[in-house]
Inverse folding.
């Protein structure tokens, strides 16, 4: 497998006429492309990475399983193309957080989908902390429903802490796992509510794709295609006439003499040539890192600090969700690794927010400890063959439990994405530099989640042997906030409809437009915003 597409006959010359040019073929770009193409608009999508062959997914799963391969190798990340640097208080492992290619990061996501709570849009108004969004839950509610239908979400309406909904989930939810039942008894004793977790994976045949086959390697690869990824809407967009061009990283954006209208994006092809793609409207959907980077790379005489950056907010307010967790051994079978995704969570404490503690959710994991294959492939005993290996597997598998949790990070201007001119990519462009650190409030939020987790584990009698707390936390790989939404051009990058304040035909469909990040997986909100942006773009055509 390589980064090149099958064959060398791909036409990467510009489309002679395009109503809309979209940068990025991840979930936002694919959904926008499909919606606009289905309305009869001429759409071209430029993607920096390759078009991966679906037939290679079993081999990619094997890469994930074998200890000789690192996580970035599963989807061919790394090298000069994907270079980046860190300058903040915390190391941010960017290449483990993303996939460059047609389908984007949904190629390796876990597939969990939640609607943000009503509180998430009104943190300042309701709790006096963070910022309010310029839109509310009611504005996104119909688009949330459309996004669930487009992605194919399996869920149950049993979460008493979730925001209101008017329609059922497209598919029934997955049943609680065996280990969920173990957690349930402890949670009942402690007065902690468990409920199901909606997933963008098929609990039954849906949209021409099979139900989940239980490979258990959902992150980083689903061989069956039961888990949604954006190649689904790439294919639908192409069926409607959209053109998807891979391996054409956009180098810069060019505008007209007024500096108020984008004329074209300039992209590079694998043979080293540069082309200009013109269009009437442009949608940037390259994620929370590459979107601000592209705007900063496109500085001009009229925009010396980068495009769409009169506010100085491009790249600023970078956020992620922080992981809190713990696990250990239980003196009874726990049946882990039967599924590779979460079936139950707790959002009971999510909206208990103030200036001391932010939002967090608790996760009851179904993949604690090593799998039998992991044990067999990583054993260090030279004598571990046959019966000896079987004994080692029996002793190490199936008696572990673990909990996870996501904790919200408030937007802070010093957490940001900038350019590093001292390090360049394979086209000579400055690479993104991540400035990322934690504040006292994030630390207290992680501690609060750990306290709840410890109470549950103690009630169960788990011998806890690892804890991820404030000093050991890492990101959930949900980069958000670098081109924030707002009504004031002096402090935001895009308007509530996701059109940039400074450019009249440039839109951003991405988690980069989030004002706050909450503590819920962001992809459903990305999808809802993308569909909303597509409708706004369509009105201009």
């Amino acid at each position: 497998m390589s980064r090149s597409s099958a064959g060398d006959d791909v036409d990467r010359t510009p489309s002679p006429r395009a109503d809309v040019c979209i940068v990025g073929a991840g979930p936002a770009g694919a959904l926008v492309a499909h919606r606009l193409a289905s309305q009869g608009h001429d759409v071209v999508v430029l993607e920096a990475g390759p078009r991966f062959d679906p037939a290679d997914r079993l081999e990619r799963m094997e890469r994930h399983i074998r200890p000789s391969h690192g996580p970035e190798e599963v989807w061919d990340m790394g090298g000069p193309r994907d270079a980046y640097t860190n300058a903040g208080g915390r190391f941010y492992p960017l290449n483990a957080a993303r996939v460059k290619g047609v389908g984007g990061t949904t190629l390796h996501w876990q597939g969990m989908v939640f609607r943000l709570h009503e509180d998430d849009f009104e943190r300042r108004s309701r709790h006096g902390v963070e910022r309010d969004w310029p839109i509310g839950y009611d504005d996104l509610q119909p688009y949330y429903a459309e996004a669930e239908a487009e992605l194919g979400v399996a869920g149950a309406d049993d979460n008493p802490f979730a925001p209101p909904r008017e329609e059922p989930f497209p598919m029934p939810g997955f049943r609680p796992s065996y280990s969920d039942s173990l957690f349930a008894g402890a949670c009942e004793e402690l007065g902690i509510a468990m409920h199901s977790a909606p997933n963008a994976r098929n609990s039954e045949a849906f949209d021409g794709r099979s139900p989940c086959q239980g490979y258990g390697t959902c992150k980083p690869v689903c061989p069956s295609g039961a888990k949604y990824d954006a190649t689904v809407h790439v294919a639908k967009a192409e069926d409607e006439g959209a053109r998807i061009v891979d391996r054409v990283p956009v180098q810069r954006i060019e505008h007209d003499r007024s500096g108020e209208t984008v004329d074209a994006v300039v992209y590079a092809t694998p043979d080293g040539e540069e082309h200009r793609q013109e269009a009437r409207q442009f949608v940037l959907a390259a994620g929370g890192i590459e979107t601000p980077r592209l705007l900063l790379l496109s500085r001009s005489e009229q925009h010396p600090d980068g495009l769409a950056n009169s506010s100085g907010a491009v790249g600023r307010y970078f956020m992620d969700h922080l992981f809190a967790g713990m696990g250990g051994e239980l003196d009874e079978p726990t049946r882990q690794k039967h599924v590779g995704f979460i079936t139950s969570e707790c959002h009971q404490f999510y909206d208990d927010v103030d200036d001391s503690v932010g939002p967090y959710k608790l996760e009851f994991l179904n993949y604690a400890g090593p799998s039998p294959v992991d044990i067999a492939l990583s054993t260090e005993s030279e004598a571990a063959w046959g019966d000896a290996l079987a004994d080692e597997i029996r002793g190490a598998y199936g008696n572990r439990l673990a909990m996870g949790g996501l904790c919200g990070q408030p937007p802070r201007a010093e957490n940001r994405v900038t350019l590093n001119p001292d390090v360049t990519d394979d086209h000579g462009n400055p690479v993104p530099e991540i400035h990322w650190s934690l504040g006292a409030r994030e630390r207290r939020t992680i501690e609060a989640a750990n306290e709840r987790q410890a109470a549950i584990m103690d009630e169960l009698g788990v011998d806890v042997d690892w804890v991820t707390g404030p000093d050991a936390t890492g990101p959930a790989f949900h980069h958000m906030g670098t081109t924030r939404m707002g009504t004031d051009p002096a402090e935001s990058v895009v308007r509530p409809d996701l059109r940039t304040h400074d450019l009249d035909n440039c839109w951003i469909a991405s988690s980069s437009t989030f004002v706050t990040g909450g503590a819920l997986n962001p992809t459903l909100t990305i999808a809802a915003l993308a569909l909303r942006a597509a409708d706004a773009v369509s009105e201009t055509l």
Summary: The first strand starts at residue 20 and ends at 23. Residues 54 and 223 are 8 Å apart (CA to CA).
